[in-house]
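Quick one: structure for this chain?
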Amino acid sequence: MSGRAVTAAGLAEFAGRRVVVMGLGRFGGGVGVTRWLAAQGAKVVVTDLASPESLRDSLSRLEGVPFEFVAGEHPPALLADCDLLVVNPAVDKGRSEFFAEARRRKVPWTSEMNLFLQRCAGRIIGVTGSVGKSTTAAMIAAVLEVARANAQLGGRVWLGGNIGRSLLEDLPSIRGDDMVVLELSSFQLEDVAQIQRGPQVAVVTNLKPNHLDRHGTLEAYYGAKRNIIRFQAPDDAVVLPADEPALSSWRTDCVRRMTTFSASEVRADLFLREGQAVFEPRGHETAAWPLFDVRDLRVPGRHNVLNALAAAGACLAAGVPPECVAGGL
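Got it. Here's what it folds into:
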């Protein structure tokens, strides 16, 4: 997709700038970025195709925030003196005439997640997948909290992204030794290509056909998901299922620190053996660490066993000692 994305070196100062937020959302997807931009001194205009009545809950969360609101349409006139367009991830940019007009006028555009990724000082664990990413992200945050309570983690733990609330307003409080767990949807990840940023630890729970009405093709959907690892640094880490056919090329092409997981005893770093989750990293087959008993998991079901294995892999990749894993699951 053509177009220019805002970068930290480009439009870094928002005070006095006119910023259009495209899509407030019935579930408040644009609330966090609207509050944050207004706090930066930006002149914020929010536009949404829905009626004010259907957006009542979202608008109530913006009480006291200075912004202009345009409902029921996206008037092209809003782009006339627009310094930046912030696009809600729910907006289908490929089918939006308003977004197409912004591109024709060369208006810089970005997303809430891109703004956060460009400015976050903490270490990021990004979680994506067709199913299970919310549960896995919550599990990771819980294990990290256990590690923090046991003095194995120095900073705070933050959970956000596609789960919970926006973390943009927390940016001043997020420090370099903090761990930030982000659930990332394919809609959010397709925009990451504009800023070419990746998490320090990338987790993929699984990969199956989904959201084809939005992405158009399976290749486009898989490509958006793959952005979670495409822009990582060489010393970053990846956690992948060992027996997911759609991810075979990811496992083959990955040159980063990779941890694999499986519910069976296939060749994986994390697997089940007689109901016990075991960590036996490749190259260290003589060393094996028991992590948890599946009967002790707080959330039942085979799918949650896989989620727990993915979460364990993420935390181990982030430096959490094996003995801290069970306490958070």
